[in-house]
């Protein structure tokens, strides 16, 4: 198999990315509410075709190189695809079992509109730190907080931004987070030294975010749907009971025992399904299209909840839309988009175009500040190109590791800069796995909630500012061999 000897020119390497961005902009303009149903996927495949055509005609890269990397990358994404399917099933069963409606029911009575956004951010932060995963946090408590915010009259994009900000704070700072472990290991840094070093940028970012959410809450009137009306609707559609909270407690116990994510999501879904059978027989019967609860209607209703779109009648159209579920079928557009994003990223790597872009970035490095800024820009750019958070972290840390070592910078600086960019901005790109998943789970388009994800927007800027003020790790002492006796 012929390998690439000549790197593409950076301007040529940027052409597929420019084509992708242009097509995505047109897609969002002409398909604002249906961009994930096919148009975005076509945009990614078109950009992939441009990349392959340029590489094969100008630089004579052979097709087997592209095919091999696509197969490898898509194979590596299989676990993420299973996670998405299980998240779809878990979100649906948590809703129909009454778990999420119960959390919304009591949350509406406790929280006030003024402090809702900062409280949502703090709650998501706490849970994400304890669980180590932003995806599970958003799919569980995040869905409940969206309902509470809607009942309090808070615009959904504000709520989604606060939830995502908190969830990704925990994703960065938790020692159980896969992105935290991955970034520290690829950069060659100690895990807990990496977490301590991130506090210089992460704590100011989250504090500033909380302040902004508080200012929004203070200036927001809170006028919206009547809370009493909302509570009556939930009572009509579901059997509100504290027993349903055993499901999140069981899930928390699984996470505490460090049960693998796939097993945790599956067992949590099964527990919620059992809860639905015991407490929500009327809702399951209605989903099945029956009038009387029996073994057949309960089984049919539960199976439909797990795999397809369902809706429980609460007597109010707005509440019906909130408690509607999509099941595993609701994740299929996201999975389709992830596969196309993997294809585009693989083509950019196999063609050498990604390496060409990063080499251009490295040429402009003259001091520590420019090194950190280049790392941050590269992390964001990799999310745009690769479409996957984990690939972006690996590529970013791997490309800059040698340069950091050559300049004597400690690996914690590299791992922090990578997390401040590749980890937190992945959810802001519509065609990444994170952006597509959270948009699907929360029901808010990525570019709609993007302006309100303050933590995710502030973190890359804060990383550069902290480096500009000199808060970087002390240079490592050069290694010297012991004297020979």
Layout of strands and helices, then pairs:
Elements: H1 10-30, H2 39-58, H3 63-76, H4 78-96, H5 99-110, H6 113-131, H7 134-152, H8 156-173, H9 178-187, H10 191-219, H11 227-237, H12 246-256, H13 261-279, H14 281-288, H15 295-307, H16 317-323, H17 332-350, H18 353-363, H19 368-386, H20 389-406, H21 411-425, H22 433-442, H23 446-449, H24 454-468
Helix pairs in contact: 1-2, 1-18, 2-17, 3-17, 4-7, 4-13, 4-15, 5-7, 5-11, 6-7, 6-8, 6-10, 7-8, 7-22, 8-10, 8-21, 9-20, 9-21, 10-21, 10-24, 12-13, 13-14, 14-15, 17-22, 18-19, 19-20, 19-21, 19-24, 20-21, 21-24
Structure description:
This protein is an all-alpha fold and 485 residues long. Helix content is 74%, strand content 0%. The chain has 24 helices and no strands. It has helices at residues 10-30, 39-58, 63-76, 78-96, 99-110, 113-131, 134-152, 156-173, 178-187, 191-219, 227-237, 246-256, 261-279, 281-288, 295-307, 317-323, 332-350, 353-363, 368-386, 389-406, 411-425, 433-442, 446-449, 454-468. The protein is globular and about 70 Å long. The protein starts with 9 loop residues before the first helix and ends in a 17-residue tail after the last helix.
Short overview:
The chain has 485 residues and is an all-alpha fold. The chain has 24 helices and no strands.
Key features?
485 residues; globular; single chain; 24 helices; mainly alpha
- What is the N-to-C succession of helices and strands? HHHHHHHHHHHHHHHHHHHHHHHH
Number of helices: 24
Per DSSP E runs of 2 or more residues, the count of β-strands stands at: 0
* Low-confidence spans: 477-485
Shape: globular
Rounded average pLDDT: 83
- Secondary-structure class: mainly alpha
């Amino acid at each position: 198999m012929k390998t690439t000897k000549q790197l593409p020119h950076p301007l040529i390497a940027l052409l597929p990315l420019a084509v992708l961005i242009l097509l995505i902009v047109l897609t969002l303009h002409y398909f604002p509410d249906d961009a994930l149903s096919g148009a975005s996927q076509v945009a990614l495949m078109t950009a992939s075709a441009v990349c392959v055509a340029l590489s094969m005609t100008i630089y004579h890269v052979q097709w087997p190189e592209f095919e091999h990397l696509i197969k490898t990358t898509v194979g590596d994404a299989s676990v993420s695809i299973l996670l998405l399917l299980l998240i779809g099933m878990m979100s649906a069963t948590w809703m129909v079992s009454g778990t999420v409606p119960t959390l919304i029911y009591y949350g509406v009575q406790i929280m006030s509109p003024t402090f809702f956004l900062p409280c949502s951010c703090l709650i998501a932060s706490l849970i994400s730190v304890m669980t180590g995963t932003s995806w599970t946090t958003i799919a569980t408590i995040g869905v409940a907080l969206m309902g509470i915010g809607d009942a309090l009259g808070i615009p959904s994009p504000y709520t989604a931004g606060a939830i995502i900000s908190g969830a990704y704070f925990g994703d960065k700072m938790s020692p159980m987070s896969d992105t935290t472990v991955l970034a520290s290991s690829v950069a060659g840094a100690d895990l807990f030294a990496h977490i301590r070093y991130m506090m210089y940028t992460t704590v100011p970012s989250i504090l500033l975010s909380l302040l902004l959410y508080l200012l929004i809450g203070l200036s927001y009137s809170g006028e919206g749907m009547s809370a009493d009306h909302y509570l009556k609707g939930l009572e009509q559609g579901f059997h509100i009971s504290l027993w349903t909270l055993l499901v999140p407690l069981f899930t928390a116990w699984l996470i505490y025992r460090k049960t693998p994510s796939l097993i945790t999501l599956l067992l949590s879904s099964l527990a919620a399904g059992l809860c639905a059978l015991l407490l929500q027989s009327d809702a399951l019967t209605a989903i099945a299209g029956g009038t009387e609860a029996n073994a057949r209607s309960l089984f049919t209703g539960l199976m439909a909840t797990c795999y397809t779109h369902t809706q429980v009648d609460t007597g109010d159209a707005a509440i019906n839309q909130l408690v509607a579920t999509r099941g595993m079928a609701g994740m299929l557009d996201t999975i389709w988009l992830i596969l196309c994003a993997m294809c585009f990223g693989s083509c950019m790597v196999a063609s050498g175009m990604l390496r060409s872009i990063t080499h251009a970035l490295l040429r402009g490095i003259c001091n520590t500040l420019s090194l950190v800024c280049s790392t941050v820009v590269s992390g964001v750019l990799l999310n745009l190109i690769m479409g996957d958070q984990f690939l972006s972290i690996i590529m970013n840390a791997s490309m800059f590791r040698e340069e950091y070592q050559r300049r004597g910078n400690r690996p914690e600086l590299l791992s922090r800069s990578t997390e401040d960019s590749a980890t937190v901005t992945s959810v802001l790109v519509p065609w990444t796995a994170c952006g597509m998943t959270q948009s699907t789970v929360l029901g808010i388009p990525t570019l709609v909630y993007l302006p309100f994800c303050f933590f995710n927007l502030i973190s890359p800027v804060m990383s550069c500012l902290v480096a500009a003020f000199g808060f970087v790790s002390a240079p490592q002492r050069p290694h010297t061999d012991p004297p020979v006796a």
